[in-house]
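Fold this sequence, please.
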Amino acid sequence: MITPKPNRLELRVIAGPRSGHNAVLNWVFGLFSGEVLYYSDVSLADSADASTAILPLKTVDDLVRDLYVACAENVDLTVAYNGFETNKWRTYAGISERVEYVLILRDPYNTFASMIRYFGVDRSVELMTVERWKQYALQFLGLTRYLPRDTIYISFNDWFISKNYRRLIAHRLGVPFNDRNIHRPVGPASAFQPTVDDARMLNVLERWIVMLCDRSYRDIFHSDPELHCLAEEIYGESMRTIKNALCG
């Protein structure tokens, strides 16, 4: 059970599988010096014991918890928002002084490359459809309004490569910046590389190269040109190189 106590900050996070959100959140945890509680996958509570998803990362005797994070992975945005607002997943951990919604998104080329390599084609389609990634992308661009207007949007790509981008995220969260946890690999093992001690060794933005000859991977992008448009609008011209390699 989650022990209720006041939280200085509560983050309601939404992300897709293999989106890099575990790495981003682990870095966020390093920004806080006090107690941190992470409810790692609130969607588990619909069919499993919700307590298995609770990770007390730092436990101290303070009367107020520094940070409480609940993450909904691979959930429709309407379902996620309603679930958090109505406490559908029994995520009550105490009254929070401030609540922020966070959407974490990785580019589609590396997301689906990692998913197919890790889960296989059939399981990947079952876990996260192209439409789900596009729903997240449209919200990320502000073209839909499933989440609150002041939602914090985090591009995994930019977070990974840019210290200034990470500094802006820390500022948005209202805490001093540090990179204490930036090089610590977390979450499920890489689908492409064995376990490493330094996350800098993980070529997380080049997974698509390994999958170029995989027909099931290429078919995802051949059948839906909108993916290319959304990727380039969010992540810039670097996506055009990948598009040309896939479709050229």
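The chain has one domain: 7-247. DSSP finds eleven helices and six strands in the chain.
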